[in-house]
Amino acid sequence: MTRLPDPTLPLDAQQAATAFDLLFDADLPEEEIAGFLVAMARRGETATEIAAAARAMRHRMIPVTAPAGTIDVCGTGGDGHHTLNVSTAVSLVVAAAGVPVAKHGNRAASSKAGAADTLEALGLDLDRAAATAEATLADLGICFLFAQNHHPALRRLGPIRRAIGERTIFNLMGPLANPAGVRRQLVGIARPDYVPIYAEALAELGVDHAMIVSGDEGLDELSLAGGNALAEVKGGGLVAMRRLTAAELGLSTHPVEAIRGGDPAHNAAALRALLQGETGPYRDAVLLNAAAALVVADAVSDFREGVEEAAETIDRGLANALLNCWIAFK
Predict the structure, then answer these.
(1) Where does anthranilate 1 bind (predicted)?
(2) 106 is in an annotated binding site
C-alpha cells in the first residue's frame, strides 16, 4: 500500500511531488491526510514543498487563456485583521491603468467579505463573470477567477481542511495556482517570516517578475502602519529582500484599524467611494499596493511613479468606469 512520506522531516523534490500526487489522487484515509498536513505545518513547510504543492494544483486546475503580461494581485488571507478589500481595489486600478489582471479569489474564509463577496455586492454577477472571464480579460483587461470553479481537485480536501481547523500548506496555495497561468504577481502573505521561503518557491516555479510582501503586523499586503518585508523575484532567481514603508513614498502612516472592513455591503460601498475619488487611509493603502503591482508589471520604473500612476487612474475616473463596464458586460 502506498503511503505518504514522513512529514516531520523536510521532503526533497521527488518526495514532495509524490506526496501531493497521493493527496490529490489516492484513496487515502482522511486521518492520514490530516495528520500529514498538520505535521508538515507545525514543522514548517519548505520552499521545495510549497512549489511541489503548487505544481500539483496547477496540473489539475481548469485553465483560462490570458493575454501576455497578465498579472494577479492576491493575498493568502488569514491575517485576522478584517481589512477592506485592498487587492480587489488594486486589481481594478491596475487594470484601468492598462495592465491586464486575472484576479484569482474566493469568498471569505476568515474575514467578513472576500473578493467574491464584495464584487457581488457591487453588482457583479459571479456566474456571468465566470462564463465570460476570458472575454472580459481580453476586452476589458480584467476578470475574476472564482477559485472553486477552477480547482475541482480541492473539493475532496475541503472537508478535511475544515475539520483540521488550523493553517496548512493549502492556505498558501491560492496565489500560486492562478488558472490564467500568470507569470507576474503581487502576492501578500500574512507571515513576514515566510516571505523569503515563499519567494524561493516562486523562483523554483519560474516567474517573469513577482513581489512577495507582508506587513510587520502580519498583514497580507503592504501596510501603512509601519514596516513591510518585501522580496522581489525575476526569472528563476531571488533578486533581493528589502524593507519598505509608506512614508518613503510620501504616503501617510495609518494604523491597520483605519482600514477595518465589515460585511460585503460595507466593503462594497467603501470601494465604490474610493473609485469615485474619496481620500483617506483606504486610498493610501490601495495606492501603495497598486504601485507595487505596477512595478511587477514593468509599467512604471519605481514605486513613486507607481503611486502617481495609480492616483491619476483613480482621479480620472478610469477605475470606476472599468467597474461599471465589467458589471454591464454581457
Answers:
(1) 75, 106
(2) yes
